[in-house]
Q: What sequence folds into this?
């Protein structure tokens, strides 16, 4: 795989993580607010799944799939901005560790 393909794959994984995290946010909100938000959540989650499937065309599973953990970061940010959740110092440290891990995993193919 060339680096342009890997960059496309990583970009699609990021889109997937965004879609799935927003899909889950709409599920959380939709439980109390209405069916249309639940349906929107399913649509976004499905778009995330489809973009992840396409992403696998552009890189190795062992490189691309672990990058999905950035969805945890998006979920934390969504919770903060849309649900009024508090972000603790432990969670910030966790975000830093996740970001470092994603960088190491995404650059792992450079040595091959």
A:
């Amino acid at each position: 795989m060339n680096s342009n393909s890997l960059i496309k794959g990583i970009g699609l994984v990021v889109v997937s993580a965004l879609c799935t995290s927003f899909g889950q946010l709409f599920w959380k909100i939709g439980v109390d607010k209405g069916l249309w938000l639940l349906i929107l959540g399913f649509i976004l989650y499905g778009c995330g799944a489809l973009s992840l499937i396409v992403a696998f065309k552009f890189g190795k599973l062992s490189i691309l799939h672990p990058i999905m953990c950035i969805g945890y970061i998006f979920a934390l940010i969504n919770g903060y901005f849309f649900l009024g959740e508090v972000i603790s110092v432990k969670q910030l440290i966790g975000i830093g560790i996740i970001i470092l891990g994603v960088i190491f995993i995404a650059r792992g193919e450079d040595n091959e």
Summary: The chain has a mean pLDDT of 91. Residues 3-33 form the longest helix (31 residues). The two ends are 10 Å apart (CA to CA). Helices lie at 3-33, 35-55, 61-64, 70-83, 89-106.
